[in-house]
Amino acid sequence: MPVRIGGMASGLDIDKLVSDLMKAERMPLEKIKKTKTKTNWSMDLYREINSKLASLRTTVGDLRFSGDWKQTSATSSNESFISVTASSTANPATHNITVSQLATGATKSSTGAMTKQPPAPVTANTAPTTTVINATNNQFDVTLNGVRKTITLDQNNYATTADLAQQIQTKINAAFGYNKITVSDSGGKISFNPVSAVVDGSTSYQPQLVLEATSPTNSGYSNLGFSGSRVAFKVDANSKLSDIASKFDTPLNVSGGSYSFTINGQQITYNGDDSISTIMGKVNASAAGVYMSYDETTDKVSFLTKETGGTAQVNISGDTGGLLASLKLDSQVITGQDAKVTIDGNTTYRSSNSFTIDGVTYNLKQPTGATPVTVSVSNDINGIVDKIKNFVSKYNETIEFMNKRTSESRYRGYDPLTDDQKKDMKEADIKAWEDKAKSGLLKSDPTVERALSRLRELTGIASVSGIQEAYNSFAKIGITTMPYDAKNTQNSGKLVIDEKMLKEALSKDPDNVVAMFTNTPASSTDEKGKGIMRRVYDQLSSSIEDLVKRAGTVGGITNDINTDLGSVMKKMEEQISRFDVKLKKKEDFYYAKFSAMEKAIQKSNTTLGYLSRL
Question: What b/e readout covers 318-354, taking b as 16+ CB neighbours within 10 angstroms?
Answer without folding.
Answer: ebebbbbebbbbeeeebebbbbbbebeeeeeebbebe
